[in-house]
Amino acid sequence: MIPTFASLTFPRPTEASLDEGFGAVLSLLDAGDLAGALARFDTERRTLESWASLAYLRFSQDTTDETAKAERDYADKIGPKATAHEVAIKKRLLNDVDRSALVNLVGPHVTKLWESDVTTFDTRIEAALEEEARLSGEYTALLAAARITIGDATVNLSGLAPWLENPDRAVRYEAEAARWTFFAENGAKLDDLYDRLVKLRHGMATTLGFDTYTPLGYRRMRRVDYGPTEVARFRDDVRTHVTPLVARILEDRRAEMGWDAVRYWDENFIDALGNPKPAGDYDLLIARAQTMFDRMSGGLGPFFRDMVDGGYLDLKNRDGKAGGGFCTSFPNVGMPFIFANFNGTHGDINVFTHEMGHAYQNWRSRDLHGVDELWPTMEAAEINSMGLEFLTWPHMELMVEDGAADRFRRMHLIGSLSFLPYGVCVDHFQHEIFTNPDMTPAQRHALWRDLEKQYMPWRDYGDLSYPAAGGRWQAQGHIYKSPFYYIDYTLALCCAMQIWLLSRRDEAAATTAYEDLCARGGSAAFTALIAEAGLISPFTPGALADVVREAAQFFDTPGMED
């Protein structure tokens, strides 16, 4: 029986309860009971993760709730202490236990993850980790508190989306101007926040024996099968294969619309008839989504019904709610939770199907051996989310306004391709930042603008002075809160678009490959998971070429297949 979300409660950890719970693991190891120790270790971690997930989710649901904020602050404070226990036990398991016995019980992949994990923490950085979490929360709260006046309305940043996609070019410009006025007014605070985060992370890295934060950041992302060299090569592939295609798509749009140039406020206005809107209100979309998932093979239909009935969705935008969308989970109950901000645009469908992909993978993986396998590393996890975006294409008639399904599919593909240059730009920016942590705010802004010109040479901000001077990156929360995460979306998109290619030839085979990938969860590293799924690694030279060629043919744009 699945408990309802409203009924969920998990024991609040204290330093004493952490000592007791993890101490029991050590006692079992002292007694020579490796299997028992590993089982207790897994139980303690599941319980702790379930509580922390709920604490951070409650804060995201209402950043103005002082009780929720206090609980999030407490989670920030207790988190490093829990990590200290976990790392100490992992070190003992890796150093004192027969390695073959350990590998036999937890598997080679989890063993490698633990080998990486133990290099990312020391009690000397506990206070820094707590401060990092606090500063990240400050960024979230600052953006959630934004109130943007547009026309006769006052909205938050998420609620601004309908104006940013308005068919009237003047309205789009007005919305962008209002958005960047907020960032300009808070620019000094955002620069200071990021400066403190960069220096804090660099300090943690040097304390742990690294020259810069980059290798520590990769290990915190649990990347055990590739490094910055492979990622840099992939960024070059995007610039070589994808940037020219997107530039041609935008030039075609400029000519079609009769614009003198494509300005920044035009980039997301993809369809001359207006970007397709959702089929109706929230209740209609949920009902239509149930029909869509029931039509698809596998367990998506029953799973989604359980999510709705159990209250494991929070999709409506409202004041005080954190921006963006994400999926979290509660390992103790085997159910994920989807958080989003519906705003009446096509983005509602993209975000919903994306987060549903995450949720479905986590649910399919719920019975894997240990907590480390419930989620794959993030670049693999994003294949599950983006893959579902593409696999729902045949059912878009249900989800978008009448007669707009083909337009939605075209828009989704253009949006996916356009995202790749931006995504790798974010990653390149972070590599440069952490190589040179003493950059001034002005230098960071200049760096961003230079990289935009490399990856997105079409970008023209007109008279929007703040982003034109290099401030666009401050709206990307991952840069503040999750360093080096963003490249995962682009690596995964390279793989998800291969699923799209397969689905255009054999929808059943693509669905089976997707279901199998979800079921494997985090049982292997990224490159191993995609190899098992029959996908080409993004790190293989030319991996994007077939996708770009198929996309060009899909658009039937002359010259794009070169």
UniProtKB/TrEMBL annotation:
Its cofactor is Zn(2+). The keyword Glycosyltransferase does not apply. Residues 164-269, 308-538 form the Peptidase M3A/M3B catalytic domain. InterPro entries: Pept_M3A_M3B, Pept_M3A_M3B_dom, Pept_M3B_oligopep-rel. GO terms for biological process: peptide metabolic process; proteolysis. GO terms for molecular function: metal ion binding; metalloendopeptidase activity. Binds 1 zinc ion. It holds the Pfam family Peptidase_M3. Keywords: Hydrolase, Metal-binding, Metalloprotease, Protease, Zinc. Belongs to the peptidase M3 family. PANTHER family: OLIGOENDOPEPTIDASE F, PROTEASE M3 THIMET OLIGOPEPTIDASE-RELATED. This is M3 family oligoendopeptidase. It comes from Acetobacter nitrogenifigens DSM 23921 = NBRC 105050.
